[in-house]
Amino acid sequence: MMILFLSLIFLAAIVVFIFKFATADGDFTLLSKGPAKREEVQGKVVWITGASRGIGEILAKQFASLGAKLILSARNEAELVRVKNEISGSHPSVGVEVLPLDLGSDEDSVRKAVEKAESFFGGAGVHYMVHNAALERPKRRALDEPVENLEATLKINVLGTITLTHLLAPHMLKRGRGSFVVMSSAAGKCPAPGQAIYSASKHALNGYFHTLRSELYQKGIAVTVVCPGPIETSKVSEASSSGQKGSSEIGENRLDAAAAKGNTYSWKLFFGQKKKST
């Protein structure tokens, strides 16, 4: 009888686990940390690249809802101003600065951006650096990808991001605190047919930032690498200097749903929902 009872408890636990996994809004490691802690973000300066659309825009709005001070960067200044105005309309007490930045530019330009970011909000300095900007090209087989596309993608996704980190980290180390949040990709964890260059750039980011974490974690600097699955951000990849179209057919509703929920992704977002018949 006892064995039967324990077996039923074990089966019930498995059912609960599967249900929780199927309906979760993030992985279990994330869920175990509980909801976002306002006290850890309120009043802190958060710098987000790629903030003019997609994940960057939604993150900016969610950080604003937690009372953070924002620095918004991307190449498209007009779109950054739009995001700033929308945030100011919803959260008038939140400070928002627009700082146009092209990660494909030279080191001196990135250094000037870092110095300007550090000077905002009375010289408070950057507490959270969210690396979200990236260039993603249309799917193409690895051997069909022109060398110039390889160079352009790695320059923005890898070299630009690492350069920004290299120039900002000393300021954080001087203060003894800071955090880098890197929006990588599932393509940086496993093969992604048709996305060899993009996948290579994300593998490079994963390797660099995981190593950086091991070197800086005892000095008050945190490093978080986030690897979401496919999502739709825009019909055109903003970071691209060629204006090529990015992928727009995958994960069609995930960002809208995340924005509406003020959270991350769930089972329904992976598999979609059936449209109601009219």
From TrEMBL:
Q: What is its EC number?
A: 1.1.1.146
What keywords does the record list, in alphabetical order? Oxidoreductase
Q: Which domain of life is it from?
A: Eukaryota
Q: What is this protein called?
A: Short-chain dehydrogenase/reductase SDR protein
Source organism per UniProt: Dioscorea alata
